[in-house]
Amino acid sequence: MRVSTSILSAIGDFKSVVCRFGAKTPEEFIYKNDLFGPWPHIEGVQIKLTVDQANGDWDGSVGVVTKILDRKDVDVANAVAIVCGPPIMMRYVTISLLDFGFDPGSIYLSMEKNMSCGFGKCGHCMLGKYYVCKDGPVFTFEQIQKYPKIWD
Ligand code: FES
Predict the structure, then answer these.
(1) CB under 8 Å to 105, separation ≥6 — which residues?
(2) Is the CB of 144 under 6 A from ligand 1?
(3) Ligand 1 atom with the shortest distance to the CA of 120
(4) Interval 31-41: pLDDT, tens
(5) Which stretches of the chain are assigned E, i.e. beta strand?
(6) Which end is more exposed in the chain, N or C (fewer Cβ atoms within 10 Å of the end residue's Cβ)?
């Protein structure tokens, strides 16, 4: 998660950083050492986690990521959202963010799910007029919302 690492290294540039992570089980969180280590203790960082299936000592949220999104946690007019993960999650998170009032140009989506060759030759990654591998892989929802099957 280079983006988060970069954001956290420049935390002074942001009013706050709101991070929401989901995983199937507590053991499957990526960056566990950071999520359960220093990140929650950084001033200005809010982290909430949720899992599909609780086990062990987990006493946190159980459910999909949209369950831990809350309009009150963000200053929507002055915020950007960065969304990465399985397409179905990205779809419903984007719907929630739009409901919160996010501008489509302020929602950044990591769309590398269909990439194959990675250098513009196979065409597997085409998203409308874009080669995800060459033009992205991150796009705003505003850039790609008109194209069909962006969540497939
Ligand atoms: S991944 Fe092959 S053209 Fe983009």
Answers:
(1) 140, 141, 142
(2) no
(3) 3
(4) 999 999 999 99
(5) 17-23, 45-51, 61-62, 81-83, 107-110, 126-127, 130-131, 138-140
(6) C
